[in-house]
Amino acid sequence: MKTRRSRVSCSFVILLGIAALLLVAAGFAAIRMLDRSAPTVTVQADLKAIGRETTATIEATEPRNGIRRLRAVLVQGGAELPVADRTYPARSWWSL
Question: 87 φ, ψ to 5°?
């Protein structure tokens, strides 16, 4: 009888450990998904007007999850002129 009781206790401990690991993983994933930090975009240029030879530097940062895609568009009177469109590789979901 003691052997059966020890098997049940061992099984219970293993199931409890698996449940605890799942709860920790779910909590970590929830914290990562609920992060509401906004990306920062900075445009550096001394512009009085925009023409074909105008240069500007655009910096975008998002320290928590990283930038996946950056698209710069000039808009004038409803017309859109794409200036740049960059796609960056996704960070792994397990990276910190």
Answer: -120, 135
Q: What is the mean pLDDT of the chain?
A: 82
In sequence order, what are the residues at sequence separation of 6 or more whose Cβ sits closer than 8 angstroms to the Cβ of residue 55?
45
Residues 6+ apart with CB under 8 A from 57: 43, 44, 45
Question: The pTM is what?
Answer: 0.50
First-residue to last-residue Cα distance in the chain: 48
Domain boundaries, the chain: 1-34, 38-88
- Residue owning tokens 């074909």: 52
- Helix, strand and coil percent figures for the chain, each rounded to 5: 35, 30, 40
C-alpha angle with apex 36: 32 to 37, nearest 5 degrees?
Answer: 100
How far, in Å, CA of 75 to CA of 96, rounded? 37
